[in-house]
């Protein structure tokens, strides 16, 4: 049998429909590859091979009966943070290493209903709160391109699994670039949907009950080795929770604004006032800009309609870190309040912004929310003139593992200059703070041979527009390439 580990889900679906391969064969090959190669990568932290083989047999029997669902028989993986009945959900937290949820997350249920074969769960950082993927329970996930470097976080296990050929699709989540950054670091595709587009119930820190809450910044979304597969999986994931909004309405996304590359109007930016852009990432942005120009698209490098990037970064840090400490013990919270009160009023650094955000009052949170609405209005005005914005995901390709427990002293190297570790989140926050959709696409390699990706930010609830642009760029830029 021809090896299929790097085939797209669409290619595997076509082969299954034609009878050229069975789900059992696809599943056995994926499991064999994991057993052969994952010791060096450590992407699959909770294998579920016996149930996967049973699901594959069921898929083949269903197809023999004439059934055909979107993902019928296709092997996939699931981020560890999703509840899967019968498997542990720990979020990398040792205190919850034995926690097993009673039911599947809504997105896992949708995968299974679409016929997917779940191979197992992929690794995450502690509490999903890092740009790397490591924890005491499952260890460190390495970048398939360079094992001394991170695969990104928090969906780093999923990105590494896809880049290594461990299944055709995966589902992750994104609060601080957790879909887009691992995709950028590992050379794959990912899509951060519009806020609220895909139900999140069952993607909850243990031992919390799977309640159908509306999250402020976080989303769940698809990861794949092709842009077309992102659309395939998003169509399975999209839609409100049947326990709440789903009782009243469904989702019908509008079509992409354009089908031809030459019809797109694109704003390209590669400079941010709060952090430098490394040369490798800048080159990746320029490769996309050149492909757009070559395809006849209208490309601009500046626009007065772009919301203020400094305020956008500041607002994002306030929201992000306000939420990150919401469940801190009272004593720790009081210590943060004391530290924040001691800050100089002149200190407007991102470190100071993060600290102030951790102790944001309700009054200040409402004011920040009002300013976010003004940014959303500005984005609506921008997207009346442009169809997408191309920009970095982080300032650099994948960086070396850095497990210093004091994250405040960690630094990233941007062309020889050191920057605070969490400052690199401002690019991810550009889409996250207003809740916009953003598609991560690979653009090629850095001089050191590391993958480089960019994000395509689109209008709210017009997710098919950046996804279609990603498909068109894939034809020009070459798309996913296996690690060498």
CATH class of the domain at 9-261: Alpha Beta
Q: From the 3D coordinates, which CATH architecture of the domain at 9-261 would you assign?
A: Alpha-Beta Complex
- In whole angstroms, the N-to-C terminal distance is 23 Å
Strand order of the largest sheet: 1-3-2-8-10-9-16-17-13-11-12
**Structure class:** alpha+beta
**What fraction, in percent, of the residue positions are helical?**
25-40%
Tertiary shape: globular
Query: What would you give as the CATH superfamily of the domain at 9-261?
Result: Amidase signature (AS) domain
| Average of per-residue pLDDT values | 96
Q: In DSSP terms, counting alpha (H) and pi (I) runs of 4 or more, how many helices?
A: 14
Domain Amidase: 25-465
EC number: 3.5.1.4
Pfam families: Amidase (PF01425)
Keywords: Hydrolase
């Amino acid at each position: 049998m021809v090896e299929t580990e790097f085939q797209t889900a669409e290619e595997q679906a076509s082969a299954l429909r034609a009878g050229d391969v069975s789900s059992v064969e696809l599943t056995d090959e994926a499991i064999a590859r994991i057993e052969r190669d994952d010791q060096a990568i450590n992407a699959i932290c909770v294998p579920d091979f016996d149930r996967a083989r049973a699901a594959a047999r069921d898929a083949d029997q269903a197809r023999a009966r004439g059934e055909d669902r979107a993902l019928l028989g296709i092997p996939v993986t699931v981020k560890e943070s999703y509840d899967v009945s019968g498997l542990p959900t720990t979020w990398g937290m040792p205190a919850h290493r034995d926690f097993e949820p009673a039911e599947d997350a809504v997105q896992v249920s949708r995968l299974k209903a679409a016929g997917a074969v779940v191979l197992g769960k992929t690794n995450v950082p502690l509490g999903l709160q890092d740009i790397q993927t490591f924890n005491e329970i499952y260890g460190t996930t390495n970048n398939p391109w360079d094992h001394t470097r991170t695969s990104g976080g928090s969906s780093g296990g999923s990105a590494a699994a896809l880049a290594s050929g461990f299944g055709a699709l995966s589902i992750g989540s994104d609060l601080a670039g957790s879909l887009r950054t691992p995709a950028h670091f590992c050379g794959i595709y990912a899509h951060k949907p519009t806020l609220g587009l895909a139900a999140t119930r069952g993607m909850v820190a243990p031992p919390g009950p799977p309640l159908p809450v509306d999250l402020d910044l976080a989303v769940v979304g698809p990861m794949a080795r092709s842009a077309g597969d992102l659309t395939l999986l998003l169509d399975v994931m999209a839609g409100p929770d049947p326990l709440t909004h789903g009782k009243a309405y469904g989702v019908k996304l509008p079509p992409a604004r354009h089908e031809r590359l030459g019809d797109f109007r694109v704003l390209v930016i590669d400079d941010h006032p709060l952090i430098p852009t490394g040369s490798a990432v800048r080159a990746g942005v320029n490769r996309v800009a050149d492909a757009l120009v070559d395809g006849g698209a209208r490309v601009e490098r500046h626009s007065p309609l772009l919301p203020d990037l400094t305020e956008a970064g500041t607002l994002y840090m306030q929201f992000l870190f306000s939420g990150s400490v919401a469940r801190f013990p009272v004593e720790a919270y009081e210590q943060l309040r004391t530290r924040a009160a001691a800050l100089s009023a002149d200190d407007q650094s991102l470190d100071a912004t993060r600290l102030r955000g951790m102790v944001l009052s309700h009054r200040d949170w409402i004011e920040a929310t009002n300013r976010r609405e003004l940014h959303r209005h500005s984005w609506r005005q921008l997207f009346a003139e442009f169809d997408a914005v191309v920009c970095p995901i982080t300032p650099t390709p994948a960086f070396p593992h850095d497990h210093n427990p004091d994250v405040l002293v960690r630094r990233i190297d941007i062309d020889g200059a050191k920057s605070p570790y969490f400052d690199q989140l401002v690019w991810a926050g550009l889409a996250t703070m207003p809740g916009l959709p953003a598609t991560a696409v690979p653009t090629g390699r850095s001089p050191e041979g590391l993958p480089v990706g960019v994000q395509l930010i689109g209008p709210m609830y017009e997710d098919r527009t950046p996804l279609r642009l990603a498909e068109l760029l894939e034809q020009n830029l070459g798309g996913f390439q296996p690690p060498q």
